[in-house]
Write a structure and sequence with these properties.
With 196 residues, the protein is of the alpha+beta class. The protein contains six helices and eight strands. Strand 1 and strand 2 form a beta hairpin. Helix 2 packs across helix 3.
């Protein structure tokens, strides 16, 4: 564990929410998502800068909290240090970074906005499905950390980092969601304001 992220890690990245660079449009995204991305750019400059700074700090807080859990064992239903399952780990790192998200991977899929795999930024959620286990539902979730890698709670290895580009997880990747963006923040959890 330890600190893996600070504001400098996001210099030059658009982290405010819907991939506002010109390449974000015209690559298969829905018009509604492109419109939301464009709307974020139209905000007054001072508000845009504040949202960008807040978003950077939140992403770093989430990544650092997740990284500190590396090596924790896998425990079915676990959602705290000492043992996590995949969605419990996501709930934990978001909760202690100030946000409440649902408990199960399938419910977490309903949060935030959809993004393409090539548009992933550190702090986005990545979702997987094993059709042999459950063809209609999300069966696994992880936290994208950059460089084609994600952090997750593996049944075999506990909390660890794996590649999203090759092997089992590349084959079973379904989609990704961005919870941290300027137009639809998750709901702050009460504990964040009382504990920090």
């Amino acid at each position: 564990g330890g600190t893996v992220c600070d504001d400098a890690d996001f210099v030059g990245m658009d982290i405010t929410g819907g991939d506002l660079s010109p390449s974000a449009h015209g690559n298969g995204r829905s018009k509604a998502l492109a419109a939301r991305c464009g709307a974020a750019v139209q905000q007054p400059n001072i508000l845009f800068r504040q949202l960008r700074a807040q978003n950077t700090q939140l992403r770093c807080r989430i990544l650092n909290r997740a990284n500190a859990q590396l090596g924790q064992p896998y425990v079915y239903g676990g959602q705290e240090p000492g043992g996590f399952d995949c969605s419990g780990l996501m709930e934990y790192v978001f909760h202690y970074s100030g946000f409440s998200i649902p408990r199960t991977a399938d419910s977490q899929l309903a949060q935030g906005v959809a993004i393409g795999k090539r548009d992933l930024l550190p702090g986005d959620l990545v979702f997987f499905n094993n059709p042999e286990e459950s063809p209609e539902f999300i069966t696994h979730v992880g936290l994208y950390i950059g460089g084609g890698r994600f952090l997750h709670a593996s049944v075999v290895n506990g909390v660890c980092i794996r590649s999203l580009e090759t092997g089992y997880y590349a084959e079973h990747f379904v989609c990704a969601r961005r919870l941290l963006h300027s137009s639809a923040y998750a709901i702050p959890s009460y504990d964040y304001f009382t504990l920090n």
